[in-house]
Design a protein that fits this description.
alpha/beta, Rossmann fold, seven-stranded parallel β-sheet, 7 helices, globular, NADP, oxidoreductase activity, acting on the CH-OH group of donors, NAD or NADP as acceptor, SDR_fam, rhamnose metabolism
Length: 259
Amino acid sequence: MSLTLNKIVCITGASRGIGRACALEFVKQGAIGLILHYLGDDETTQEIQTLQKEVEERGVQAVIIPGDIAKLETSKKIVETGVKEFGRIDVLVSNVGICPFSDFLTMPLETWERTRQVNLDGTFYIVQEVAVQMTSQIPQGGTLIAISSISGLLGGAQQCHYGPTKAAITSLMQNCAVALGKHGIRANAILPGTIATDINKEDLKDNAKRDYMINRTLLGRLGNPEDVAGPVVFLASDLARYITGASIIVDGGLFVNFQ
């Protein structure tokens, strides 16, 4: 069953993981055009080209834009290219995030700065650029969705840099909901739990830690990118037309499992 979205969707960090799963789910649910951002190194270039081919084989046009999301010019290029190709942007999924696990006491300043620049600064840049576009297009409005994390609500010994950026992203979307509602723009955050993606691939090679995280969930398994893509597409759809400023936890019950 398709939601018949009929929307132009922009996704950052679309080459793999949650971003890729979102792109494919949007196609499945009736998106009419995709603006797909990727880092631009050899690996992500090959991945995004494969995704673009798969999307277009399903009858949906896709434009791809490389660049470091931590740089403002990348967000400007994403919006400029997307609008040139499709004329408007209806949905943004701000998905790029990094988490180079590091002990707090020995964390290099560069690790803190890079994590903040990619996760928080990059999110701010793309959200602002897309929001400006959404206020200028006719009809005005759209949907902003940021991928945050339950790490913004909980602590982690090796995430003293990552968690604060995700808490800030959740807050950013709440504040954007207040600022942009008058323009018909909804802003919401998705807070995934432990999702098996490249961001934690090395960390989850520790079988004891992997088993611990699985046992913490109420559903008895780690999440996969498709588990996040569903809620993202729902928030982008008209079924969620009265939802803004919300923070939706997608974690298999990990957050509530106190005992």
